[in-house]
Specification:
- The structure is a homodimer of 717-residue chains.
- Chain A is an alpha/beta fold and 717 residues long.
- Chain A folds into 4 domains: 214 residues, 3-Layer(aba) Sandwich (Rossmann fold); 160 residues, Succinyl-CoA synthetase domains (Rossmann fold), CATH 3.40.50; 164 residues, D-amino Acid Aminotransferase, Chain A, domain 1 (2-Layer Sandwich); 77 residues, Dna Ligase, domain 1 (2-Layer Sandwich), CATH 3.30.1490.20.
- Chain A is built from 24 helices and 29 strands.
- In chain A, strands 9-8-11-10-12-13-14 form a 7-stranded mixed β-sheet, with helices on both faces. In chain A, strands 24, 25, 26, 27, 28 and 29 form a 6-stranded antiparallel β-sheet that branches. Chain A has a 5-stranded parallel β-sheet with strand order 2-1-5-6-7, with helices on both faces.
- In chain A, strand 1, helix 3 and strand 2 form a beta-alpha-beta unit.
- The first copy, chain A, is flat and about 95 Å long.
């Protein structure tokens, strides 16, 4: 028995490995949660002592019951609360008096029902704080630890899973029941299995970090419906991946607006937009999955097989058609079909029938028995050009399915490269699949899932080995100046800075703003235009005119002092005609950027993730193609490059089809400075540089226009 | 016993429903194809008479054998040939002498092995022609007919499938074994099941058309590795869908270049590019699937349930998490979450617990039993705002899985709207799933597959109801003139028409070419430019200069007679400098198109599909985003519109973000005229109009440049 509960200050230790458990609110009625949980702990061979607490029963399932938790004569490490929500408060008080430090609160009827439930949740949190107690839940299925020394099933799941190396954390309790059933059928085991419900106290992040240090857990799987502490999540995931080398797989629902709204009505919380979640998970190195099945398909590969060192796969099949389908799927996942060495080809020629296809996919032909699979697999796995084997079997009349399954396992175990399998069909191949599963060779019903799992495992091996360069901290910036401008503007009704103020903020962070000035009269205009340098752009300086182009308040390409004077008059006349009530503070004059490609940089402060940085190419690319990329600030340098390359139109900046090469290094610096600005100045709610002109290589960039929305008290979250 | 073989001239009748079958080449060795096929026909209760033909055996599996097919004393409707490929020729001769008209040739070793195999296949085809015989194969698994009056398993599959309404046709024999196993486990039955192998005689198209008229078949599934008769396939599929109202589902492998090359090495044939296949299948109304599982997921919905009349689904679940996942999946498939009527909401309020979520997804809560599912499903299906029900179950401790399954079936059967289900998990829910499958309620392991199947079924109901307007035939065209220009150019070495010839061809089809002329001298240039109307574009007239822009042989915006003279001299000088050897025939002068959006129209003659028409927006949209759409000529009018709308940048032509509305009607006419031109003139191998300028609404289009590649004998296929 591990002595977690004695020694560790980790609040999760006595939840996962208690020596004694009280089930507070247990009943004698089978088929109800309060009975089922007690019964599960008892029947699933908990290695410590269990005490039912029941206001009325003398004993439950043969075990002496106590009226109050305070009546239990021995120390209690963990209390599992199954009382109705109205009574939970009282039960917690008594647990506190008893000196219990850890709880799992199964009961529902808290934040998720809104109204009084929110208040009830606040109250139990206060009681827990008062007594120094930690708890999982409320509104959850419970906690499972398969460690034979503990063997705790403190949940109302129908079954205790087998021991294994996967840690599973779920925001949905009901989904857990489906997952446990699915995993049972696929012979998948777990180390820890936690339904964390409303996570009022112990959070998903606490749990994932505890699995980081759990020697029994090699792979972490999470089902999430919201990411309220986005930045902390990204940080925790990166630590798990890089410090512990454990993959983190996430199924995040609420991808669509309607799904998010369904999640909100179900969890009572608001979700970040899915494109931001997606960017954050990518930045964290998390493997995002779209279905439960995909999550486990990827997990078994990561848990049981060596990581692929490259993308070059050998496909071995006893049927041409499935070989073609697998090739399609592999290429779709950007895997490569290995080119066999001459030696391998010679060996195939000598050992396989003449009708066999010895190119990749290797077709060992419909009448292949185990010996041919052995020869083909061994030769492929020993070839230096091969990073892994994908083995396909169709149940033809001569196929000795079980012998082949055993042989595939034997060959796979003898090599340090991964082998994945797909025995196609269902009933006839079932005995073969059972052998593969028992011997921990990943099996997939669909070759497509097999290829996807291989690709994700390879992605992880690359991610794990990657050492990211942290975003640099530019020291030539003037944070005080930027903040002064922003603070001076916080009281603005609409929250937007004036164009010249916006430019001042960017200038303080050495973003390449163009030379500017504000003219107060037509005559002023000609002098200032000459100062900033022709050609110039001119636009009205007015807080009241938001869509300046639409009212003719912007004029471009003004190339002489006389034109500047005329332009001033035109702009003022246009504004007067369209918006007679608008206050005009003058006309803003700016040097024109010169030739280059227009891009858009943006920042939006997300309640969960903090400042999110956006990049895209100007105009229609953002408008029509939604061709943009996001990252969470601060952005490691490699991710600045990755986010630029994610944008499909990016080749327009790097010489595609005879276009000039633009100044990518300068663009990269702009993104990094912008990200630093957003982190330094929480007053910035939204910021758009649109457009930033990226000039030719070595000639830098120019901020042509920018808008900054400040966080006024009404809008702050 | 149906008397197909007597009355019908259909060559497939006596293959699917023979009264007597000879297995030619049968042996006494179990575990070999020649024995297994004989044994399958015998043991799987064939309702006619079976005769083994064996050079050596007296009897096989207890049935008297004949040395030669000619020795059989009775008439034989069908011969199944299982001899090695070298002997097949001889066997066919004897079958011909015996008067057998129908054969299934199982034997491999023909076209698929190349070389001598190709010749062997030609020889057997000639023998078949000589005797008026038809055959399926060679190189196939065989033919199955589950009709109880016939019950023929003339295949070496491990099992005879159950009777059902799905017709399955496969180019891969081995894949059939996996499919039969999969279908058995899912309780899916078939009407006909055919592995057609090399289709040397009876083709996939013959087979699909025979299933069109087969009353036992309601849904047609096909696995294809190539589409060599693409146009005929599209036509057959459209007839099946529109005349017989049967959906056609296709899994076409070789999607990727590598997959296609694997398919080629496996079937010995070349594939059309996948984007063309994809466009053709869409045009045909075929439901294209990416995996075997997806094909059956869609098929069970189409086979067993009423077609959805709309996209509005009601999700009913006993767990919030899966409800969110299903909502995401539904929205991803562009389904809509139904808005319940007030009456339905009231009913939910009255009948479901207060904790239930009565918005869509309807959460009947974890402790729901069958009664709550019944109430929720019935109310939802009776609501006029609902087109179908998606029912989710997770196996929670209180869930009475089997009773719920029965109740779901009862409610579903009582309504004319479709119900699909997903009982999540595997072992615990197995008994419930078995009930659903037995009662023909589609069940899906993943909510995602369920939503996709619903969306495909709805697509089919729309497709089936759609009456397409055939492409108009323009009578104002001058086919003879176009052909004359093309034929006059067929001998050109490089195959490209001169610019002026290309324009003549387009002009003959009344495509809106700009006014042009060819100047032979600088002085000529000023006169001709004045004639076509300023501003003009000028480019060199030379067969030798292909990339005219690159060598400075194109000048634009020439707006006076003097500039035209100068431009002539500049162009000639530029060409002389870059390509001194080029023959210069003068300078081509063209009226400029004026303002508009640039689009690209193209035609490419595909060996399988004939002329394929391409549409995209000019420049980077095609180059970087590959934002193009294809259709096979002739294009029904609705598909001309659909192909334009498939292009993501299309909103740029229809007023997106304040842009002008362009002349879409004129663009549509250009696509239709181009398609007619390509059909009328097989000499056109490739044709690109790049760009076509689409002017503002009502102002038409203008062909600014075009290239035509003619089919010279060397390039023809």
């Amino acid at each position: 028995m591990p002595d977690f509960a004695d020694a560790s200050t980790d609040k999760l230790a006595s939840i996962f490995a208690p020596r004694s458990v009280a089930v507070v609110g247990a009943t004698r009625v089978p088929g109800t949660v309060p009975f089922d949980i007690f019964s599960n702990i008892l029947k699933d061979d908990f290695q410590g002592t269990i005490y039912p607490v029941s206001p009325s029963a003398k004993s439950i399932a043969g075990v002496k019951a106590y009226k109050y938790v305070l009546d239990i004569p021995d120390p209690v490490d963990l209390a599992v609360i199954v009382f109705p929500s109205s009574v939970v408060k009282l039960a917690l008080e008594q647990c506190g008096q008893k000196g219990i430090k850890s709880l799992v609160i199964i009961s529902a009827g808290f934040r998720e029902v809104g109204g009084a439930g929110v208040q009830r949740e606040d109250e139990i949190l206060q009681i827990a704080r008062k007594y120094g107690m930690s708890f999982i839940g409320p509104n959850c299925l419970g906690v499972i630890n398969t460690d034979p020394a503990v063997h705790l099933n403190a949940s109302f799941a129908r079954r205790m899973p087998a021991e294994g190396a996967i840690g599973f954390l779920s925001q949905s309790g009901a989904l857990c029941t489906a997952v446990l059933d699915y995993a049972h059928a696929k012979n998948i085991g777990f180390s820890k299995f936690v339904s964390f419900g409303n996570k009022a106290d112990i959070s998903d992040i606490d749990l994932m970090l505890s699995l980081k240090d759990d020697p029994a857990t090699r792979v972490i799987l999470m089902y999430l419906e919201e990411l309220t502490q986005g930045a902390a999540f990204v940080d925790a995931a990166r630590r798990i991946i890089h410090e512990a080398g454990k993959p983190v797989l996430v199924l995040k629902s609420g991808r669509t607006t309607q799904g998010a709204s369904a999640a909100a009505s179900h969890t009572g919380s608001l979700a970040a937009s899915d494109e931001i979640v997606d960017a954050a998970l990518r930045q964290a190195g998390v493997i995002r999955c779209q279905t439960i099945e995909e999550m486990f398909n990827n997990a078994i590969a990561l848990t049981y097989q060596p990581l692929p060192r490259g993308r070059r796969v050998a496909i071995i099949t006893n049927a041409g058609g499935p070989g073609v389908l697998t090739t399609d799927a592999a290429v779709h996942e950007r895997l490569e079909l290995a080119q066999f060495s001459d030696a391998t080809r010679d060996l195939f020629k000598r050992s396989l029938p003449v009708t066999a296809n010895i190119k990749n996919p290797v077709d060992v032909i419909g009448d292949a028995r185990a010996d041919r699979y052995r020869v083909a697999m061994s030769a492929a796995l020993e070839d230096n050009n091969v990073d892994g084997a994908l083995v396909i079997l169709t149940p033809q009349s001569m196929t000795d399915i079980e012998t082949i399954a055993e042989e595939v396992c034997n060959v796979a175990s003898a090599h340090s490269k991964p082998t994945y399998t797909s025995f196609m069909g269902e009933t006839d191949v079932a005995s073969g699949i059972a052998i593969l599963q028992r011997r921990n060779i990943p099996h997939y019903i669909l070759p497509e899932s097999m290829c996807r799992a291989f690709a994700r495992a390879h992605d992880f091996s690359v991610e794990q080995a990657r050492r990211l360069t942290p975003a640099p901290t530019y020291t030539d910036v003037d944070t005080a100046a930027a903040r002064a401008v922003l603070d001076g503007a916080v009281d603005l009704a609409r929250g937007y800075l004036s164009p010249s103020d916006a430019m001042k903020v960017l200038e303080a962070y050495r973003l390449p703003v163009l030379r500017t000035g504000v003219a107060r009269s037509p005559r002023d205009a000609s002098a200032i235009a000459a100062q900033v340098g022709f050609p110039v752009a001119m636009k009205v300086e007015s807080e009241d005119v938001v869509h300046k182009f639409d009212v003719g308040a912007v004029l471009l390409g003004i190339d002489s002092p006389a034109s500047a004077t005329a332009a001033y008059e035109t702009i003022v006349a246009n504004v007067r005609r369209h918006q007679p009530e608008a206050r005009i503070d003058g006309v803003f004059i700016q040097q024109m950027a010169g030739p280059g490609e227009e891009v858009i940089l943006g920042v939006k402060r997300d309640p969960a993730f903090g400042p999110v940085v956006m990049f895209g190419l100007g105009g229609i690319f953002v408008e029509i193609f939604k061709d943009v990329a996001f990252r969470i600030a601060p952005i490691p340098v490699e991710h600045v490059r990755a986010m630029m390359q994610e944008v499909k139109a990016f080749p327009m900046l790097t010489g595609a089809r005879g276009r000039p090469h633009r100044d990518i290094a300068a663009l990269e610096e702009c993104l990094l400075r912008l990200s630093q600005l957003a982190l330094d100045c929480p007053q910035i709610q939204e910021l758009d540089i649109n457009p930033l002109i990226v000039r030719d290589q070595g000639s830098g960039c120019a901020v042509a226009d920018a808008r900054i929305l400040t966080a006024s008290p009404q809008r702050s979250m």
